[in-house]
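Exercise 7b. Backbone tokens:
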């Protein structure tokens, strides 16, 4: 009731104060294109009741199918209309809908009816709310037309990603809304559209992005005291991952690094053995080789995939064999979500009968010839660290086709406790098992994995399109066999770029935008400087010229634009 009174009074005052402005806008609409001043459309209101929303007309009259999504540059939008849309002036007549009681000032933005017919279960609760002129989800997607423009299939993306995400945000608002929150949203809307003052907020490289389910799963753990490394969520999490990895067996562990360590132990790698390892990677791929006392031999990258170069790999194997030190394993990394040249590398590994451990820590959801990464070698490893595409706060998983290896991994990960009523140990064990609470978070995250991949891919497309005018910047692209989750969007500055990577990084940092140089190759790391390495200069060059751009799936289109504008600013200065 209070909200209704607040809405009514605010809308009335708003309409009276804005009347001269609204009249001028109406006249300009009439003068700049043929047709009516207002645009009316059927939208879904409270309790799924249809109502007619009133807007200023921003498109040409009789523009055809009213149910198609609108993108920036859409031929149907008039010049003046695109100005109205940019500053959300086209929404102001909605104050009339607020007066008549069909809408509130704040609530879920009313979408087209056919989307709401697809809502199921708890999600339908958002229909209990009155739709709003602004709302928590419309703040995030203020410029969604721009994001849709970078999609091959905007309608699918609008539903699969944007609409579903809006539903989630609106459901959270449904569970926790009051007048104070409404006031904050109103101020944020005015502030954002008029002053753009959120520009100072820090944009992180790849922060975690939670959906609505994680807390529900975790609450269940607390209610039933399943907080240790024992409980049903670990099993469910492993089952979910098993489905994603085409029925491989899974051991959920407490980090990707721990998973790599166990993969090496299970591959029989021992003290003094040689392990061939991608040089262009994070140190966590190489450190476990040192944990088992083996010697890493680093292999540089190929220029197409940025991952292990098959030619150098074979040269290294031949050399090792000549020295009577046949490598015990190959640590193959799929960096930034991009598949390595798997066919070529597996052919070499099979030829010399050397097991491959796939470090797919950054590549969950990526595929090669439609097969998930991690399922080509003897073992695959994923990471669920806080910055990964989905997270368990901290965690990892080891996957393998062979059930016995996974049983053994679980045994080793729980202190290698023999099957006795008391504590008996015949082997050295580790405390590497994932906790049930982390698995609960992971279950919520896996529900949105597909969505996150689409978002990451859209982020990469957006950057690529928006920065296409800067010839000094290029992107790492897929080939016909590879499908990347684009965990991080990476750019490479051309050799003749007037700006170097560090200048660009510091420029972004000054604007409170986090970016990061590409991984420094292992053969250049002080700790590994004595190790054998096969180098062609590619990874060193990538390190010198490459930068990871902010790629968080909770970035709004305004955030993405902010990054793009800052990069352009530097190049166009
Ligand atoms: C390529 C690579 N390998 C291994 C790891 C280790 O994973 P975790 O941090 O879960 O131990 C990471 C990420 O952190 C990584 O990026």
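Sequence design result:
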């Amino acid at each position: 009731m209070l909200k209704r009174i607040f809405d009514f009074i605010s809308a009335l005052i708003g309409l009276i104060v804005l009347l001269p402005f609204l009249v001028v806008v109406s006249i300009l609409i009439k003068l700049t294109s043929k047709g009516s001043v207002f645009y009316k459309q059927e939208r879904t209101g409270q309790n799924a009741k249809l109502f007619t929303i009133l807007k200023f007309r921003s498109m040409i009259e009789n523009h055809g199918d009213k149910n198609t999504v609108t993108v920036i540059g859409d031929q149907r939008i008039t010049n003046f209309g695109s100005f109205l849309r940019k500053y959300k002036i086209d929404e102001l007549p909605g104050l009339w809908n607020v007066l008549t009681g069909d809408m509130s000032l704040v609530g879920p933005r009313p979408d087209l009816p056919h989307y709401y017919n697809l809502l199921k279960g708890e999600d339908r609760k958002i229909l209990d709310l009155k739709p709003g002129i602004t709302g928590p989800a419309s703040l995030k997607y203020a410029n969604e037309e721009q994001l849709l423009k970078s999609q091959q299939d905007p309608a699918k993306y609008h539903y699969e990603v944007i609409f579903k995400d809006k539903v989630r945000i609106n459901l959270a608002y449904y569970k926790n809304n009051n007048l104070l929150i409404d006031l904050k949203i109103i101020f944020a809307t005015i502030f954002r559209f008029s002053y753009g003052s959120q520009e100072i907020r820090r944009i992180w490289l790849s922060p975690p992005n939670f959906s609505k389910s994680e807390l529900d799963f975790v609450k269940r753990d607390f209610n039933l005291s399943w907080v240790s490394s024992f409980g049903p969520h670990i099993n469910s999490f492993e089952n979910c991952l098993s489905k994603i990895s085409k029925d491989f067996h899974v051991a959920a562990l407490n980090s990707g690094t721990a998973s790599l360590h166990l993969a090496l132990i299970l591959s029989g790698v021992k003290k003094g053995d040689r392990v061939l390892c991608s040089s262009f990677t994070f140190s966590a791929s190489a450190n476990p080789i040192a944990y088992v006392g083996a010697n890493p031999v680093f292999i540089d990258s190929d220029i197409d995939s940025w991952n292990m170069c098959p030619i150098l790999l074979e040269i290294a194997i031949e050399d090792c064999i000549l020295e009577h030190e046949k490598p015990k394993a190959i640590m193959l990394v799929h960096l930034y979500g991009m598949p390595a040249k798997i066919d070529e590398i597996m052919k070499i590994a099979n030829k010399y009968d050397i097991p491959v451990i796939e470090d797919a820590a950054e590549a969950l959801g990526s595929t090669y010839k439609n097969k998930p990464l991690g399922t080509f070698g003897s073992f695959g490893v994923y990471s669920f660290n806080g910055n990964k595409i989905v997270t368990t706060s901290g965690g990892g998983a080891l996957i393998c086709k062979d059930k016995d290896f996974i049983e053994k991994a679980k045994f080793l990960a729980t202190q290698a406790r023999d099957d006795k009523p008391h504590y008996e140990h015949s082997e050295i064990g580790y405390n590497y098992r994932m906790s049930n609470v982390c698995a609960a978070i992971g279950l919520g995250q896996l529900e949105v994995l597909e969505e996150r991949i689409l978002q990451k891919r859209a982020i990469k497309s957006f950057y690529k399109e928006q920065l296409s005018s800067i010839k000094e910047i290029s992107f790492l692209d897929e080939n016909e066999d590879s499908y990347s989750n684009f965990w991080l969007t990476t750019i490479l500055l051309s050799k003749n770029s007037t700006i170097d990577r560090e200048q660009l990084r510091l420029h972004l940092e000054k604007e409170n935008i986090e970016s990061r140089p590409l991984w420094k190759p292992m053969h250049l790391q002080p700790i590994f400087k004595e190790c054998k390495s096969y180098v062609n200069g590619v990874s060193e060059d990538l390190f010198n010229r490459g930068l990871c751009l902010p790629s968080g799936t909770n970035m709004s289109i305004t955030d993405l634009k902010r990054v793009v504008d800052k990069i352009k600013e530097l190049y166009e200065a």
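Instructor comment: Residues 301 and 308 are 5 Å apart (CA to CA). The longest strand covers residues 38-44.
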